Amino acid sequence: GQNIDQPTEMTATEGAIVQINCTYQTSGFNGLFWYQQHAGEAPTFLSYNVLDGLEEKGRFSSFLSRSKGYSYLLLKELQMKDSASYLCAAMDSNYQLIWGAGTKLIIKP
Amino acid sequence: IAGITQAPTSQILAAGRRMTLRCTQDMRHNAMYWYRQDLGLGLRLIHYSNTAGTTGKGEVPDGYSVSRANTDDFPLTLASAVPSQTSVYFCASSARPGGTDGYTFGSGTRLTVV
Lengths: 109, 114
Known about the structure:
A: mainly beta, five-stranded antiparallel β-sheet, 0% helix, B: 11 strands
């Protein structure tokens, strides 16, 4: 079956760094997406990886290892506004997204 | 402002009633999607459309129907609502199926079936 696993909740301190992990199992693979979702709002696109390695975009970076079925989202210099849920989604061979349940990130001052 | 508009924002619906959730985009995206989001679960695909005039079933299509008469509109209909359809519904679009620029989501419809 197809499955995405990510931690339910994480806590970090303002100004620190946090890494949110995601493992996936899909029928075929056409890339890995990360989205941010603030409470009561719609998800917004953060990043897309299809090749192994690290993609950096400002304070946010995303990493992919296809051989391990593993990705992480790295958030640096955490700000209070980064408190949100972070959704991992893998695209399968039919180009459909399989979504994880999301990781709720709590930032403490 | 380019994006996706969903209506209504929220609704309380009596079980057994019929309801249509509206979704309109102005980005000329080819692909559109309907998801439901429930606490503790990932987004689950209800129906999708890769281009105007075509639709397909997602992971949880039972009790729902869609149509795609044109590029901009993708309404979702609940023929006879049941309490298990209480959820937050998101419409999304992408420039093309399998697009790597990510999906654009509407602001959601919070539906309660009583």
